[in-house]
Amino acid sequence: MEPWFPIETDRLILREFRISDEPDIHEYACDPEVVRFTDWGPNTHDVTQAVLRRWLKEQEHGLEHSVTLAIELKSEKRLIGTIRIDVKDERTRTADFGYSLNRRYWNQGYTTEAAHALIDAAVRRLGLRRICATCDTRNVASYRVMEKLGMRREANFHKDVLQKGEWRDSYLYAILAEEWLALEGAKADSAEELESRAAGV
Q1: Which band of pLDDT confidence, cut at 50, 70 and 90, is reported for residue 195?
Q2: pTM (2 d.p.)
Q3: pLDDT at position 188
Q4: How many beta carbons lie within 10 A of that of residue 193, not counting itself?
Q5: What's the topology of domain 7-194?
Q6: How far is residue 180's CA from residue 124's CA, in Å, rounded to a whole number?
Q7: Among the listed residues 95, 174, 167, 100, the one whose alpha carbon sits nearest the alpha carbon of residue 136
Q8: Could you give the CA distance from residue 152 to residue 148 in angstroms, rounded to a whole number?
């Protein structure tokens, strides 16, 4: 398979990790607000170092079924978060994804921009058929990202994840490849129509 990353968007680069990313990773991974709705963290320095070593080792082996990428902000040339995709079922071409973002960069559309690029690559480059994601039902910001992407809420699981010593409820969101392509096609048609109107065509 040809490499499908790095992926560049207007403001971001989704890329492999570097050893120099460690301080930027730790900045968000040790933040209690960032990890409030996760089943990991807040990280110690030792845990962050171990996680980064694992990601770097995975990169060396070129894993195709589970990939975690750095989210780099082009204007600052620094890592501001991470995003991952895992192929859960090869037969049905089903995958799930997740993301974490430094709190200083919340509410600026970066997570949606990164997730949009990842899903598009998953559909067009990896040939995946169904893309899913889950989140804590209290994590409004996370499920709003999924809804902005056109994903549909398919389930509400009760006390399905043990998170920091307590059982949490989760929402499951999903989108099919044909739905994604239809949405993207509609956006392209709408943009073309606006351009034509602006040009007086």
Answers
A1: low
A2: 0.93
A3: 83
A4: 11
A5: Aminopeptidase (3.40.630)
A6: 10
A7: 167
A8: 10
